[in-house]
Amino acid sequence: MASGATTPADAAPAPGTSAPGVPAPAGTTPVALADTALGDPASGVSPQAAANPAPGTPAPSGSAPAAPDASAPGAPAGRPRPLHDPDPYSTPPYGEPGPWAPAPPVQHPTATPTHGTQLPAAHHSGTPPHGTPGPAPAPAPGGPAPAPAHGSTPPHGTPQGVGPQPQPHPQAAPHHQPQPPSPTHHPQSAPPRQSYDPWNAPLQQSGAVPVDKDKQRKRARRVLLVGIAVIALVAGGLGGALGAYLERNAGVSDIELPQAGAQDKARAKDSVAGIASSSLPGVVTLHVSGDEAQGTGTGFVLDGKGHILTNNHVVEPAGTGGEISVTFSGGETAKAEVIGRDAGYDLAVVKVSGVRGLKPLPLGNSENVQVGDPVVAIGAPFDLANTVTSGIISAKERPITAGGEKGDGSDVSYVDALQTDAPINPGNSGGPLVDAQARVIGINSAIRSADDSSAPGGGQAGSIGLGFAIPINQGKRVAEELINNGKAVHPVIGVTLDMEYTGDGARVGDKGKGGGPAVNAGGPGDRAGIKPGDVITAVDGQRIHSGDELIVKIRAHRPKDSLELTVQRAGKDRKVTLVLGASSGN
Predict the structure, then answer these.
(1) Among this protein's residues, is 346 annotated catalytic?
(2) How far is CA 11 from CA 125, 217, 389, in A?
(3) H/E segment holding residue 542
(4) Residue 271 annotated to the active site
(5) H-state helical runs in 447-564
(6) How far, in Å, CA of 248 to CA of 255, rounded?
(7) Active-site annotation holder among 429, 445, 463, 546
(8) Residue 165 pLDDT exceeds 70
(9) What is the spatial distance between Cα 472 and Cα 503, in angstroms, rounded to a whole number?
(10) E strand or H helix at 218, and its extent?
(11) Reported pTM
(12) Looking at 150, 307, 313, 490, which residue is catalytic?
């Protein structure tokens, strides 16, 4: 048959046979297409009738004979059976497209032949291979349009003929290869089928959008960074909460607080710490008990023989049969005995025996003390041993009297004292008042309190910053006399004073004790020319205002010291020179 000739539908050879007079291509295998199982809606034959015609019923004009069932006996080998039954309702895409939408395009995958299957030889004649659409035959004048050839595929969207054909299942005929499309192109022929590549499908068929790999990587990087930030925040929150919990609940181990490291314990010698470190070994605490009273006081070591200086009112409760216990700063204790005491000076000396390693305190000079000098007081206030307080010298030559509980004046002490604001309390009595060089300049003896401890229900008085100490110059002289003689001597002027005089100065009385003369015959006052009724207004140029002040000024000197007195008689002042005498102390 010449190239480009067409074969009418009624002259088309049956599947599996060749046209009359045209031999079949060598090595070809009859192939049944899936669309031969469908009926022709234009001919009025249903798909079921087209697929299974009644016996003896001739096939409709223009249609191909029904494909025999591959599973039926006697069916030609290699012809596949359709994978689905014909659609009785002609629903798209198997039937004619409905009025509501065109049928979607159908992909026609190319089956891969089984290994070893021989492919059909290429056609060089003008006859297209089986199943390849050829040119439409020219219609006869005034006659009907020729029917499509068997196995031909109508153009997409053509309403006549068979609609989109069902796809043959790849497993239905694994050894059959569809025939390639004819290279000849005619305007009336259907477009050739395209091979389907599942990995390179056209975008217009799948609707996919090209993927921008750079954007995808940037998006992945942003997601990763956000994830890392979220994880960091969560981890930080959990760590903080865990740390707070461990801190509040002592954690998993014991708490160890920060602390400064060890430092040198040495201090400057003129600092309070340096003074205390140097003086404390020489300070002792005294516990005194007697038949009627007991008390606590302080003392300090005078020499290596065990002599200790303290106040008379500290050891006075022991009397003649009491007991005195001395406790050193290191904790050692020893028994002590009274060597001598004097109520007028309020000083006493006790001695301990059998004690080694005593550290006497150095003695200073009270004449060198100036107001404002720093001082340190050491004692046992309220039985609190080794207590250290500091202050300054508030005043000098402050005349004070203490004692007088007996009523006859025999226990009154007259002190030309050093005043200090270093806190001094009961129990400090007899302790040392030291200067910046840790030298003793006074003996703490009295305090001035805001309350009256002698009132009913009143307790011991406390410090208000008014403390008084016996100058060490006076204490040294008295201590030496008590150690050497067992008693002290008092300087005297040999006159009797009127202690009830309220004027300014010290007035000499009209009569002495027991009705005798007020001025002792041959005494220091008599030799200086002092007469009864004279008023002494100054001692060595220092003004005095009472008899107590005059006694204090005299007691501040030694016997045989020469004094210049200012005496007022008949409204006139006169100065006299007086050499102090001596009398036995009590």
Answers:
(1) yes
(2) 19, 64, 142
(3) strand 542-543
(4) no
(5) 472-485, 524-528, 547-555
(6) 10
(7) 429
(8) no
(9) 32
(10) helix 213-248
(11) 0.57
(12) 313
